[in-house]
């Protein structure tokens, strides 16, 4: 049953009025996801999953280019495996979902539903690695994860989510460290090039690192409301898991040694970042490189002239489909204005309009989603004009996001300056930090901000913003999702 022509796109809450509700409205009304029947779960709808497939394809290509292979490991993990690395199990215990019965019978040992896969993968590496000839092991898996979250929001934090997790084993600490930084750079480049999301990278503090890691490195992004989001992480595991799971190899010198390991991952949270970095009051704005549909074609085909317009649309679309991801909206039950608003809400980068006047003049109209700019071009020039417009929009989205990041990254010297700056606007706050956990905890208690990363570059401020003693690190703080 068709909808009436006057059934218009539902209103989206203004982000300036209620940012949280705006975010949920965009997710639901752009049909990216819906709430699942179990509290905290979500159903990723085709529009949302198509974005995830583009993210997956872009990252997977980069992983393969650096020598990594995909594999698949079990969803269920014996409790005894989690217990073998003390810091790891302590960190994840509050979030683990347990299977206690199988086929109606109680299990002899509880099984954890995968909160992360270090332990199950390490148990296999202990079987597979024997000699230096077996190294390095460079494996990634794409899978689902379950973590029993108390407060959830679609894509940002859900009980079940999709991710990729890389797990590698190396002969030396230097090789493992190189891998950690290599993967951090892959994430940074992907986020900026494909998603048009600039990030600040660096190392996590002891309190913020991954449970069981020696060091954790992160990509931190700034959202439209000034909060920050951890977009991807890369962990240096040292020999912690190797010793716990007895993963050893015989080196060239005939000595048995533990391997050095890394893990790294990114999740469907990237879709949440896309929404909040680029979205506006009209809904979703998708960067052209990641958009499943880059061009939506809307024929304006009234009355007797309709068939001629549709015929020309089919011809133009056939040409464009070989170069871009194109979709035609020729539904008769909706007005052109309704379609314009719907596809704007869904974030399609470029709209192509063709009506009777355009047909007679040999012209077509192109409209940009981000700025609303409309230009008239010759139909014969469409392939080139569309490419130019998509490329310019991708560049402009990144430039605007970079400008926002620069404007909302401020340096503070004292807690008083920090409080004043946060009262004025959220964002990233750069400060000196002595390295003591007590000073880090003071910042969190008094401002609600956490230490996002210790930067790997940049001049270290002279003093710690809390205690005033000599700073050891250049730290970046922010209120996070």
Structural summary, described in words:
- The protein has about 475 residues and is an alpha+beta fold.
- It has three domains: about 20-280, Bira Bifunctional Protein, Domain 2 (BirA Bifunctional Protein, domain 2, 2-Layer Sandwich); about 295-395, Rossmann fold (3-Layer(aba) Sandwich), CATH 3.40.50.800; about 410-480, C-terminal domain of ProRS (Translation Initiation Factor IF3, 2-Layer Sandwich), CATH 3.30.110.30.
- It has helices spanning about 20-30, 45-65, 80, 85-90, 120-130, 175-195, 240-245, 270-280, 305-320, 335-345, 355-360, 380-405, 415-425, 435-445, and strands at about 35, 40-45, 70, 75-80, 95-100, 105-115, 135-145, 160-170, 200-205, 215-220, 230-240, 250, 255-260, 260-265, 295-300, 325-330, 350-355, 365-370, 375-380, 410, 430-435, 450-455, 475-480.
- It has an eleven-stranded mixed β-sheet, sandwiched between helices.
Strands across the major sheet, in which order?
Answer: 3-7-8-14-11-10-9-22-23-21-20
What is the number of strand segments? 23
The number of helical segments is: 14
Given helix and strand content, the structural type is: alpha+beta
- Gap from first CA to last CA: 41 Å
- Radius of gyration (CA) equals 25 Å
CATH class of the largest domain: Alpha Beta
Biggest sheet features: 11 strands, mixed
Number of domains: 3
Oligomer category: single chain
Hey, roughly how much beta strand do the residues contain? 25-35%
CATH topology of the largest domain, by name, is BirA Bifunctional Protein, domain 2
Q: What's the architecture of the largest domain in CATH terms?
A: 2-Layer Sandwich
Q: Helix fraction?
A: 25-40%
Poorly predicted runs are 1-8
Mean pLDDT across all amino acids? 95
Overall geometry comes to globular
In CATH, the homologous superfamily of the largest domain goes by the name Bira Bifunctional Protein, Domain 2
């Amino acid at each position: 049953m068709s909808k009436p022509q006057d059934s218009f796109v539902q209103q989206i809450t203004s982000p300036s009025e209620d940012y949280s509700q705006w975010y949920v409205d965009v997710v639901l009304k752009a049909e990216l996801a819906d709430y699942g029947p179990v509290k905290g779960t979500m159903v990723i709808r085709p529009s949302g999953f198509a974005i995830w497939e583009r993210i997956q394809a872009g990252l997977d290509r980069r992983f393969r280019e650096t020598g990594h292979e995909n594999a698949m490991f079990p969803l269920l993990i014996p409790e005894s495996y989690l217990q073998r690395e003390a810091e790891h199990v302590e960190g994840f215990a509050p979030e683990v979902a347990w299977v206690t019965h199988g086929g109606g019978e109680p299990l002899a040992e509880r099984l954890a539903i995968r909160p992360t896969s270090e332990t199950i993968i390490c148990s296999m590496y202990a079987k597979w690695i024997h000699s230096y000839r077996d190294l390095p092991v460079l494996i990634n898996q794409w899978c689902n994860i379950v973590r029993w979250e108390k407060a959830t929001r679609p894509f940002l934090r859900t009980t079940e989510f999709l991710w990729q997790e890389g797990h590698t084993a190396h002969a030396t600490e230097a090789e493992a460290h190189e891998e950690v930084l290599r993967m951090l750079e892959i994430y940074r480049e992907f986020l900026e090039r494909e998603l048009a999301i600039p990030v600040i990278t660096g190392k996590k503090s002891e309190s913020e690192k991954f449970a069981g890691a020696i060091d954790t490195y992160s990509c931190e992004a700034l959202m439209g409301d000034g909060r920050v989001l951890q977009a991807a992480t890369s962990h240096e595991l040292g020999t912690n898991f190797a010793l716990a799971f007895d993963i050893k190899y015989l080196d060239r010198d005939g000595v048995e040694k533990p391997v050095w390991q890394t893990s790294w991952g990114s999740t469907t949270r990237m879709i949440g970042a896309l929404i909040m970095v680029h979205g506006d009051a009209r809904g979703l704005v998708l960067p052209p490189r990641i958009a499943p549909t880059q061009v939506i074609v809307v024929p304006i085909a009234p009355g007797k002239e309709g068939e001629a317009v549709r015929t020309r649309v089919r011809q133009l679309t056939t040409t464009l489909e070989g170069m871009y991801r194109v979709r035609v909206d020729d539904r008769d039950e909706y007005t052109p204005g309704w379609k314009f608003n719907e596809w704007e809400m869904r974030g399609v980068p470029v709209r192509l309009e063709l009506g009777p006047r355009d047909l007679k003049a040999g012209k077509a109209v192109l409209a940009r989603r981000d700025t609303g700019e409309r230009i008239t071009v010759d139909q014969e020039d469409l392939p080139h004009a569309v490419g130019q417009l998509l490329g310019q929009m991708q560049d402009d989205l990144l430039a605007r996001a970079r400008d926002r990041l620069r404007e909302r990254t401020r340096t503070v010297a004292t807690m008083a300056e920090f409080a004043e700056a946060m009262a004025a606007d959220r964002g990233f706050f750069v400060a000196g930090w002595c390295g003591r956990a007590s000073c880090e905890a003071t910042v969190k208690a008094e401002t609600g901000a956490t230490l996002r990363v210790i930067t790997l570059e940049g001049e270290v401020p002279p003093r710690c913003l809390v205690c005033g003693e000599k700073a050891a690190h250049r730290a970046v703080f922010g209120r996070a999702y």
